[in-house]
Amino acid sequence: MKRFIIITIVCILGLLACTSKNDKSNQDTVTQEAVPAAETKRVEIQNMQFNPQQVTVAPGDTVLFINKDIVTHNVTEENKAWASKDLPTNQEFKIKVDTSFNYYCSLHPVMKGKVLVAK
Amino acid sequence: MIFFVTFLAITYSNNKLKYKTMKKLKNQGFIQFVLLLSALLFYGLESKAQKSTTLTDPEIASVAVTANQIDIDYANIALLRSKNAEVLNFAHTMANDHKAIIDQAVALVTKLGVTPKTNAVTKSLLDGEKTTIKKLKAKKGVAFDKAYISNEVAYHKAVIGAVETLLIPQAKNAELKALLVKVMPALKEHLAHAEMLNKSINK
Asked: What residues contact B139, with CB distance under 8 A and at least 6 apart?
């Protein structure tokens, strides 16, 4: 009788362990589907314009600015909260985005752009 | 500009009375003609004059490099004289951008084996630069800032007009023409930036 009880307990514990593992595996799958991988959106600086002038991203995405113009530019947040270094031709600047912002080139203040974060 | 043309016409007719010999009259008339033609060319008022003025590619290269160098010269004066942060920022940008344009032009003419050739338009630009520099150096403080920025507005308007209506249409080499087209957005942004500053410092 004692042996039977022990075997039964071991079997129950074994079944519980398997069930728990499967549940965890399912949870992982669900989590991966809910949070898509972060993307990188590209903004080219050309002909004295940010192109596209407005880009919409998801939280956590990265925006890559690349200067394809013949003169140096930069990317400066409109309230000067942050700024890239000056970017000569073909130089890049990356920023991970969590909130929307407006920006401009402080060397050429007529040049403006916007990054919108879709919630 | 109408005032300037009228002034030249009056000056010309006065000179007719003033100068006794035909030789002097011819010389003076030629100088006035060159001044008038240059003014018309660079302020885009007389399309007929532009059509009758032809420039070769080496001459166009000379005009382009000279026009850019002149704006660098103005910027260097502003960097020494101005204390206004926005004016200094603008002057830094002008010096750097026009240097970058000259570098592109020099690289192209070197590749093409073209030697820029001085011509009447180049000389006229340089004469205008001398007069402007004299005026700028006579001013200080806010008066200097206003004069510098006001000149930048007028100068960029004139250069844009000349590049669009004279240099681009007359450039024969495709790469030279493409470079002239390529610099237009920068020139237009400079004009918009100068106009923006002109408003803010004249408030």
From this structure: B147
